[in-house]
Amino acid sequence: MKAIRIHEFGGPGVMQLEDAPDPQPGPGQVVVSVKAAGVNPVDGYIRAGTYARKPALPYSPGMDGAGIVESVGDGVNNLGAGDRVYIAGSLSGTYAELALCNANQVHRLPAQVAFAQGAAVNVPYATAHRALFHRAGAQPGDSVLVHGASGGVGVAAVQLSRAAGMKITGTGGTGKGRTLVKEQGAHNVLDHRAPNYLEQALELTGGRGFDVILEMLANVNLGADLGLLAPGGRVVVIGSRGPVEINPRDAMGRDAAILGMSLLNAPEPDLARIHAALVAGLENGALRPIVGQEVPLAEAPRAHEAVMEPGAFGKIVLIP
User: Distance between CA 167 and CA 210 in Å, rounded?
Assistant: First the structure.
């Protein structure tokens, strides 16, 4: 099979398309013929060697994908060859024509969901679900601010919040992105490049503030976020690219909480519950992954550059 391989940590150029042995499933394992693989910022952090967890070299990147079950190992009874699935984690990496997974990393993909959309499910939607419901404890009626709502996690957060009966304000840096956020169900959409958007956001809550803020770029926004929280409000840090200075009194005066989150910290029982909810949302149409770009597998370096650029619009996927 063809696969992207990384032999040393570094910039996007360290990814090379190579021939690799076809994986074979062991007990409790599944091999998936990958039709699309999702690209996430965390893939780039791992590739660069700056992430807390480093895989052994050489390796194939990728935690997200979708395709058709090629073969299953002993003890796998809930999946069979030919099943349409999406991948939520992989033993061998999804930037490849074939991916080896544990059976619990593979979930059924409804017939109406395209493979490229299926590749946009795992990290974006599981991250948004865990941030909203497991970390922030969001409830129907809560006011939610989603920073960077036009990206993969942002779109997922808007759809999940709207389906759960929350009042959503989303931000985007481009007109195209803001239109997307509105189409996905946000009640209000703001330009986070406008100098007064924070004042506008607070006015939308009648001055009360937001119950939950999902923060994709904490090194830029976290200090200001604390001033936008309602009493007892929670800000969940999903992404950050460096340190930030805050005034703790902004949290103290509101009994507010700053909650860190990484999907990789989620225990298996939580992941099972998350994906049960995501499959249901895909089946009933409440969740509709948006694919912004489809890039050939051989051009993975270009995809890694694009996923870090401002003006996010949906999900970037690789097509083997």
Answer: 9
> And the tokens for 18?
């190579």
Q: How many CB atoms lie within 10 A of CB 131?
A: 26
Q: Which long-range contacts (CB under 8 A, 24 or more apart) does 292-300 make?
A: 292/316, 293/317, 294/36, 294/116, 294/318, 294/319, 295/39, 295/319, 297/2, 297/4, 297/17, 297/37, 297/95, 297/96, 297/97, 298/17, 300/4, 300/12, 300/15, 300/17, 300/39, 300/61, 300/95
In 3D space, the residue among 144, 185, 151, 150 whose CA is nearest the CA of residue 167 turns out to be 144
Structure tokens of 180? 């997307």
Average pLDDT over residues 279-283: 98
**In the 8-state DSSP scheme, what is residue 23?**
P
**Number of CB atoms found within 10 A of residue 16's CB:** 14
Greatest pairwise CA separation for the chain in angstroms: 60
What mean pLDDT do residues 31-53 have?
95
Higher pLDDT, 312 or 285: 285
311 has a pLDDT exceeding 80: no
Place of tokens 């699309």: 36
- Cβ atoms of 92 and 31 within 8 Å: the answer is no
Give the pLDDT confidence score for residue 310 in this predicted structure: 83
Torsion of the alpha carbons at 96, 30, 293 and 297, rounded to the nearest 10 = 10
> Amino acid identity, residue 86?
Y
Instruction: Supply the mean pLDDT for the chain.
Output: 96
Give the pLDDT confidence of 207-242 residue by residue, as tens digits. 999 999 999 999 999 999 999 999 999 999 999 989
**23 contacts: CB under 8 Å, gap ≥ 6:** 31, 91, 92, 98, 99, 100
Q: Which residue, 307, 221, 265, 234, is CA-closest to 126? A: 265
Helix, strand and coil in the chain, % to nearest 5: 35, 30, 40
Cα 129 from Cα 123, distance rounded (Å): 10
